[in-house]
Amino acid sequence: MKPRISMITLGVTDLARSVRFYEEGLGLPRMPSPPEVAFFTLNGTWLGLYGRADLAADAGVTFRDPGFSPCALAHNLGSATEVDALYEEALAAGASSIKRPVATTWGGYSGYFADPDGHLWEVAYNPHMWVGPR
């Protein structure tokens, strides 16, 4: 099994403004990414910026839900089977199911759970790019 790599994803209100802040303001190195999301490398992990409404939709929750925090942590894994296994491990440990893992429109596989305090975690497999050290 490949090591589990965590990624921080923040839901932002203005993606372009946030990209400028993190790229130009803080000097974080930006990675190639699709137009609807921006990835930056950090020391040992990544930072992702995603529109708040898009993050809520991806997690399958309502954007205006008072319980929705525009932040999601992520575990990126090497296969859909590993995603399913970690998802079930999290539920067994006390997590709440938010969105069962499914095939995504972008060709990957992901789902969401909430930790006991309600923090969103995405578990994902992305066959197009590996997150973390090889």
Number of strands: 8
CATH homologous superfamily designation = 2,3-Dihydroxybiphenyl 1,2-Dioxygenase, domain 1
CATH topology: 2,3-Dihydroxybiphenyl 1,2-Dioxygenase, domain 1
Radius of gyration: 14 Å
Helical stretch tally: 3
Distance between the termini: 12 Å
CATH class: Alpha Beta
Share of β-strand residues: 35-45%
Report on this structure.
The protein has 134 residues and is an alpha+beta fold. The protein has one domain (5-125): 2,3-Dihydroxybiphenyl 1,2-Dioxygenase, domain 1. The chain contains three helices and eight strands; from the N terminus they run βαβββαβαβββ. An eight-stranded mixed sheet has the order 2-3-4-1-5-8-7-6. It starts with a strand and ends in a 9-residue tail after the last strand. The relative contact order is 0.20.
Short description:
The protein has 134 residues and is an alpha+beta fold. It has helices spanning 15-25, 52-59, 80-92, and strands at residues 5-12, 30-31, 37-41, 46-51, 71-77, 96-103, 109-114, 120-125. Helices cover 24% and strands 36% of the residues.
List keywords for this structure.
alpha+beta; single chain; 134 residues; globular; 2,3-Dihydroxybiphenyl 1,2-Dioxygenase, domain 1
Set out the fold topology:
Layout: E1 5-12, H1 15-25, E2 30-31, E3 37-41, E4 46-51, H2 52-59, E5 71-77, H3 80-92, E6 96-103, E7 109-114, E8 120-125
